[in-house]
From TrEMBL:
Record carries keyword Protease: yes
Origin species: Streptomyces similanensis
TM annotation in the entry: none
Domain of life: Bacteria
Keyword Zinc attributed: yes
Protein's name in the database: M20/M25/M40 family metallo-hydrolase
Length: 974
């Protein structure tokens, strides 16, 4: 049967929430044909001016609306009367021989972008032997060829000439636009590529016609009246949109106008996602205004369709008989009203409504989610009225608070598609969220950056997707968010970057969070100084491998001395000697302090090391206890803090920067017996010495295996640099509640010295919210080997250790390093989550974030190493500008050996930095895993949900509300 399909949407309890049926009445007819297949083919061939091939023929029941007939379906390839390409489906009544229906797979259209830019563009290509080819292996199927030749191949990976008449340049534009749309589908709409399984389709450039089209398997690009290839962003986005229409439930056989509008909507979404600057194709809602196909400007207008060719703004009974492109008007109009509203302001055009109502927009990304959600509920023979019902169902699933539902309904009413019998209702709980900033101000000089954390929480209802934007920034100031969209309850790192030309003054920046129709704001005060005093030199990267080497040595010392380094033992004294020798060799002034009162009998000495440069009357201290408990080697507690300080001290000596303040390091004895070594030191300080110490920073357990990210006295002035560095990695650190009063910083608090420090957690259990934010396992201790024999060099998280060491260096440079002539360009890199469990046959996504930590932003190429056989890592995009993020997909093939692997993610620009991702592949060899929000699934993946197994039938990224029993278009019960 063609046209009798049904989509059923059920909730997790099996309750049917929506039914979309292509046929509305019972079908009963004879299945005996009177007309032969050959007769049907002859009748069908008459529908084309030239038939080149009969692709297939079959006997079907053709259901359309309330009518069903037995018919021969014949598929023909050829040319229409106007010499346009065609792949035509013709349905001939098998009893009377009359043609009862037809539709064409070939969808012709055009777009807006003449050129993409700015040049040079970054596109994903591949290598074939010693040559490069315009083939994207990360999106299987996507490649670009000469219409009259083959795949573009050359000796270098530099493509295009810049000439709009060059087919190779046309292919560069086509590849760029197709890759942007693929990324948009994944990052905005949760779809895994164009075809739903990570793949795409080929493109040909060089059609000698004023046209571009999709033929069911390929996109073909022609030229405009000036003989320029029209592979602009929304031309390509439009044509691939036809492919998306074909590769979602129900196919592309619709009421007139719906297919063309689908292409226009996907083109507009791709334009918005690419967000190109002037003079390139900036986001808009007109079609063809830049390519100027026939010299008459845009060929369609989405905010007011009547402005082009008097196309209809409103739906009426005549739409099904209206020419396909003109009939797209009402759906294009609906999408604009839903995305932007009838009076959006901000330079965006107002849009008339057919019922004189006022419609409030929800943003183009949310509008895209609603429309794509409806595409997953399509049936064959889709109509405007059925699309209303499907989009309302999708909006209700996306927003339990009903505001998205209400806006979707208002947009349909505004174009004349009124209530339908199958429409859902929405009276669910209202959802809302809150927005906060910390800190709420940042005092910086022109040419430098400030950092803040944007916090969100779910106030009522379910968690929502909150998009973050900023307004009010003056010229020369850029505000970015990492990530730019968060789930309420999570946080984002905000970076405010100024240029050297930014005028001095105090500015108010408004940070806005938008979730559906709800928005909340927070104010950030930015005082900008005149600059001119130089910039502190860039903090170096502390080599985490060298930190780990120190930990191995400390572990060896413990194993040679009773398997511990307790303060009263030979293991402690050997540890102190190891640290002392290296500091003396590096040029530090090193002293040992005997604890003459208050310490355990026989306890070893404190070790103090001062870098002999900078103002001796302005001292910043960095300390960690060197002793362990008697139960084990104490490598995380606290070899980790000790080794981090040792390697950072050696890095400072090697860098030898100009110093404005003095740095003093300390390794304490007898901390495990009650902070006795640091307590003796602090009590021994004279009034003069107390005044010299401006702050003390403590580092106790900074490599916990199930790491949290905690800062002592989080909101204090002393904590600002520590907090700023971890915030720049998107970590959103929390107050160290577990460690209050339990480590050496408490000794300094007792004598009135400001304190802060890092910790990654001890015996307390990680909460579910923390696991969602930082990765790791909820309900498990941060360090399950705390004060135990298993606290060895294998009980350390390299990622947490690396972040701690680099944060210490950053703090030293911010507090004590003097001015340098100019900052070097540098960046940081992080992975979130930093750990993951992926079953064979499945995949996971990781957000790889970068931040500009010095100088100007730079291009950073991403790569991965250390993956075992059967594991691959891809990046989308594979190159970013520092401050941006990329999505890494870690795919584990079926049959991959179980085990835990450390993948190294490398960012290469003017500098090179790495971060790590710990991958656990469970045993069993299957592809069965527990379904989770945010995971990416490919067709064939098997998951468990509520004790039942489901197989993925269409690749996608999971959103809230897309649980397997709720979306039968994506999951099939096993």
């Amino acid at each position: 049967m063609v046209g009798g399909d049904v989509v059923v949407l059920a909730d997790g309890d099996g309750k049917v929430r929506s039914v979309q049926s292509a046929a509305k009445s019972r079908i009963a007819l004879s299945t005996k044909a009177r007309v032969t297949a050959a007769q049907a083919v002859r009748t069908s061939r008459a529908r084309l001016a030239r038939t080149e091939k009969v692709d297939s023929r079959r006997l079907v029941v053709r259901a359309r609306g309330d009518r069903a007939v037995l018919a021969w379906e014949t598929v023909l390839t050829g040319r229409t009367k106007v010499n346009a390409p065609s792949r035509l489906h013709v349905f001939v009544d098998a009893r009377t021989g009359a043609v009862v229906d037809s539709y064409d797979d070939v969808r012709a259209g055009s777009g807006t972008s003449k050129w993409n830019g700015p040049n040079p563009l970054t596109i994903d290509t591949s290598r074939s032997g010693s040559s490069y080819v315009l083939r994207d292996t990360s999106r299987p199927g996507l490649q670009c060829s000469d219409y009259s030749g083959g795949l573009f191949t050359k000796a270098t990976d530099n493509w295009g000439t810049g000439s709009p008449a060059s087919k190779e340049t046309g292919c560069v534009d086509a590849m760029f636009a197709a890759q942007k749309e693929s990324d948009m589908l994944k990052n905005w709409l949760g779809r895994n590529g164009h075809d739903g399984n990570g793949g795409s389709w080929p493109v040909r450039v060089g059609l000698n016609e004023l046209d571009a089209y999709w033929d069911g398997s390929t996109i073909t690009i022609g030229h405009n009246s000036a003989n320029e290839w029209i592979a602009g962003i929304d031309v390509v986005g439009h044509e691939f949109g036809h492919g998306l229409d074909s590769f979602t439930p129900g196919g592309a056989n619709h009421e007139s106008g719906l297919g063309e509008a689908t292409g226009d909507i996907m083109g507009a979404l791709t334009e918005a996602y690419a967000n190109e600057p002037t003079p390139y194709d900036t986001p808009d809602y007109t079609v063809g205004e830049m390519i100027n196909l026939q010299g008459r400007g845009p060929i369609r207008n989405m905010y007011n369709p009547s402005l082009v060719g008097n196309n209809p703004n409103c739906y009426s009974a005549s739409i099904p008989q209206t020419e396909e492109h003109a009939a797209a008007g009402p759906l294009n109009h609906w999408f604009y009203l839903l995305a932007e509203g009838s009076r959006p302001g901000g330079g965006k055009p107002s849009s008339p409504t057919c019922d004189n109502s006022t419609v409030t927009g929800v943003g183009i990304q949310n509008a895209g989610k609603v429309f794509y959600g409806a595409m997953l509920l399509k049936t064959s023979g889709m109509t405007y009225k059925r699309y209303r019902t499907a989009t309302l169902t999708a909006a209700k699933n996306l927003d339990a608070g009903c505001s998205l539902f209400d806006s979707t309904k208002a947009a349909w009413n505004a174009i004349g598609v009124t209530a339908q019998g199958g429409d859902p209702t929405c009276t669910g709980e209202q959802t809302d969220f809150s927005l906060s900033l910390g800190p709420t101000s940042g005092d910086i000089d022109a040419g430098s950056s400030a950092h803040a954390t944007v916090g969100t929480s779910t106030v009522s209802g379910t968690a929502q997707q909150v998009s973050l934007t900023a307004s009010g920034a003056p010229a020369g100031v850029n505000v970015s968010f990492s990530p730019a969209t968060v789930t309420s309850g999570s946080s984002s790192a905000m970076t405010v970057s100024t240029s050297s030309a930014t005028a001095a003054g105090t500015y108010q920046i408004t940070v806005t969070g938008t979730a559906g129709a709800r928005t909340h704001t927070a104010q950030y005060t930015l005082p900008v100084g005149g600059g001119g005093g130089g910039n502190p030199s860039t903090p170096p990267d502390v080599d985490v491998a060298k930190v780990q080497a120190h930990l191995v040595q400390l572990n060896t010392i413990a194993s040679q001395n009773g398997n511990n380094r307790r303060s009263t033992t030979a293991g402690y004294r050997a540890s102190l000697a190891y640290v002392k020798d290296r500091l003396q060799a590096a040029g530090y002034t090193v002293t040992e302090q005997s604890c003459t009162s208050g310490c355990t009998a026989g306890a070893g000495n404190n070790l103090i090391a001062e870098w002999p440069k900078g103002d001796a009357n302005s001292v910043y201290m960095f300390g960690a206890h060197l002793d362990s408990v008697s139960a084990g080697p104490g490598i995380n507690d606290n070899g980790s803090g000790s080794a981090v300080l040792l390697e950072t001290a050696l890095t400072l000596a090697q860098s030898d920067p100009a110093m404005k303040n003095r740095i003093r390091f300390a390794w304490w004895t007898d901390e495990e017996q009650g902070m006795k070594g640091s307590g003796f030191y602090a009590r021994s300080l004279s009034t003069t010495e107390l005044a010299r110490i401006k702050a003390y920073y403590n580092f106790d357990m900074v490599g916990s295996t199930n790491a949290g990210y905690f800062v002592n006295n989080l909101d204090s002035a002393a904590a600002v640099p520590l907090k700023a560095y971890w915030s720049s990695l998107g970590l959103a650190p929390q107050e160290n509640v577990e460690g209050r009063g339990r480590s050496d910083d408490y000794s300094f608090q007792q004598v009135g010295i400001p304190t802060s420090g890092y910790a990654t957690g001890a015996s307390d259990a990680k909460s579910a919210a923390e696991a969602a934010k930082w990765g790791g396992t909820a309900g498990r201790a941060y360090d399950s080997c705390y004060h135990s024999a298993c606290d060895t060099s294998g009980n350390v998280n390299a990622t947490a250790l690396n972040r701690s060491a680099d944060g210490v260096a950053y703090t030293i440079w911010k507090t004590a390093v003097g001015d340098a002539p100019a900052p070097a360009d540098d960046f940081s890199i992080s992975a979130n989550p930093a750990t993951g469990t992926v079953s064979p046959g499945s995949s996971a996504t990781v957000t790889v974030s970068t931040a500009t930590t010095g100088g100007n932003a730079q291009s950073v190429s991403l790569s991965a190493s250390g993956a075992p056989a059967g594991v691959s890592v891809s990046f989308a995009p594979s190159s970013v500008t520092s401050g941006q993020s990329s999505t890494a997909t870690v795919r584990v093939d079926a049959g991959t050996a179980s085990g835990t692997y450390t993948l190294t993610i490398t960012g290469t620009g003017e500098a090179t930095h790495t971060t790590t991702y710990t991958l656990t592949v469970p045993g069993g060899g299957g592809g069965d895993t527990t379904w989770q929000v945010g995971a990416t699934y490919a067709a064939g993946d098997v998951v468990t949900y509520d004790g039942l197994s489901y197989r993925c039938i269409q690749g996608h990224t999971a959103y809230p509300g897309w649980e397997p029993p709720n979306v039968p278009a994506l999951w099939q019960r096993v």
